[in-house]
């Protein structure tokens, strides 16, 4: 593969290699790009000798020699090609253009843009225009309305990952505004805040009947994220078939795609609107909605082709540090592998992902419906008590009815109790769920 507008090859990392110029050019380019170390200009794989040392040098050079900060906008990973180890630098398009080499400042000598397969000096007129329109409304630049913030939870998470924070962590993690105040990113990551993420569960296919409403938040966004993930993992019920040879398990939604979608919605949510993401579970789907549509300069085509413009680079950096998200641009492809482009919907002010319940699970539920369960569904045209149902079915053995009819129907989600908080109530009755109604009419 030859070089393109988004791919640059470098044979080796040396002091004379102007790596910063290439990275700056991709940061200023609307699609970002990739820089490979260990491949020459002809596309021949050379490999790298000192992998760990070179990766460390690359991170250090990008971190210290480029302004505005590129932290959260790049990844440095190793790959195998033609039996040799190479380095791939993933660079996202930044939202604070123009980016430039600190040594030369915001000048034609310091600012570059990708033109074809090369990094060219950016004309001063364009530099001035970009600077005048630079996005200032970001969580890194908004001053937190509270400055008495504590970060014990963040310290614990970094410690658990073997990356203890030092006294300069607020500056290193870009939790300060340019004039030294704690910013909104710091507020989101603090031990106490006023941000809460909603996980709602509805009966049926619409929002008419809310059966469960949970809120996770008022704490570090990291802690809230883990709570949301745990809750939805529990909701991602496993259905099993036991054959003569094996036990086959299937979940409502693909766990990998679901995990990526949860992190994507939280990390890329537009918090400047003060609207957190929300997660809604229906009988036939889960909807994940985050505030903000596509970032400025990113088209739907770019998005689906893997172009990444992190909305909240400060959050992205922390989530990557804690290994909650992987390399830039990897989440959307994983989601699309399972659900395709059609699961995404871009609105004026929101982005929504919708994952339908797995057809395999639907088929599995059908396979598990016994004759006893089918007969119970047939007589349930309104709520009935245990005695009423046994009489309608002509049964006299109470324990047999409870285990083979009621319990199995409850496990399959085909019926529900009218008084779920008091399962042994003398007034308890049973009725069809939406899933049960759908199964009854099949």
Can you characterise this structure?
The radius of gyration is 27 Å and the shape is elongated. The chain starts with 6 loop residues before the first strand and ends with a helix. Helix content is 34%, strand content 21%. It has a six-stranded mixed sheet with strand order 10-9-13-14-16-15. Strands 1-2-5-4 form a four-stranded mixed sheet. It has a two-stranded antiparallel sheet with strand order 3-6. A hairpin with a 2-residue loop joins strand 4 (74-81) and strand 5. The model has no long low-confidence stretch (mean pLDDT 90). 33% of the residues are buried. With 442 residues, it is α+β, with helices and mostly antiparallel strands. The longest helix has 15 residues, at 51-65. It has three domains: 7-132, Schlafen, AAA domain (Methyltransferase, Cobalt-precorrin-4 Transmethylase, Domain 2), CATH 3.30.950.30; 196-360, Heat Shock Protein 90; 369-440, Arc Repressor Mutant, subunit A.
Strand order of the largest sheet: 10-9-13-14-16-15
Alpha-beta content class: alpha+beta
Work out the helix count: 16
Major sheet: size, sense and barrel closure?
A: 6 strands, mixed
Contiguous uncertain segments of 5+ residues: none
Note the overall shape.
elongated
